[in-house]
Amino acid sequence: MKLVTFLHQSSEKIGAIIDNEIIDFSVSSLPKTMIEFIELGDDGLSQANAVIAQAENKISVNDVKLMAPIQRPNKILGVGLNYKAHKEEAAKAAAALLGKPQEKYPTIFNKQNSSVVGPYDDMHKPNASDFFDYEGELGFVMGKRCRHVPYDKASSVIYGYTIVNDATIRDWQMRGPPMTMTMGKSWDTHCPFGPYLVTSDEVGDPHQLQLETHVNGELRQSANTNDLIHDCFTVVEYLSTAFTLEPGDLIATGTPAGVAATSQNWLKVGDVVKITIEKLGFIENKVIAEPDSTASY
Questions:
Q1: What DSSP state is assigned to residue 28?
Q2: Contact 182/240 with Cβ under 8 angstroms?
Q3: In principle, which of 75, 116, 199, 221 could form an S-S bond with 213, CB 3.0–4.6 Å?
């Protein structure tokens, strides 16, 4: 099932998308937010299928604004240097700053939930930096509250998959030894994701998906998730060893080679970043100048 959060006639709603039509869940007894829906687990999906079968409450996708599937995940966690080719390019481009990355364990960082925007919303090019980079990534969303999840059970606690642009301000990322991930990763508008939350059963094997990133139509990243160093299930096992994962938590699994940091071809105002992942659709975001209206005191 492809689940969406959308804005229709000034009301935020959730539903499922089939072809070019959205089945609105708001007229049923289903929850009104995606996290609450996820918390229902299989029972929620069964109820949703019953709503879909009624063939009512259909809205054209052209009549809505698709939003991030989860507006404010409780946690957004990222995995750094998690594709073999990207680790190699990063080591060559920034060895003096990064040092030699460890390989045994995933490199984990936080991305603040205030960075979330919709799959087709604008991203702000900051006034404070010119080192604005894109990172096309496979994301997954947790479906259960869990701790100490073994590898062979990890698939059962992942609710579904989505596309994430883990946009990064590289010079702020590099402030402090060896990297200050949170400050470089958490700028407002720098976590577009969506357009759907595709349930695990529909995706199948998440480690056989083709990923591509285009900037202004130019192919910048092209890889398969089979190149992940630490796969989705390893990441769940590792994270849940330390802390509880909760329904709706978003985990971005890392980006492949081809980021702007390698070519120094940084994002600028007017650029359009399109990220496509097999079975998950695409997100597309235009870079605009950071508006003066973002200042508040």
A1: S
A2: no
A3: 221
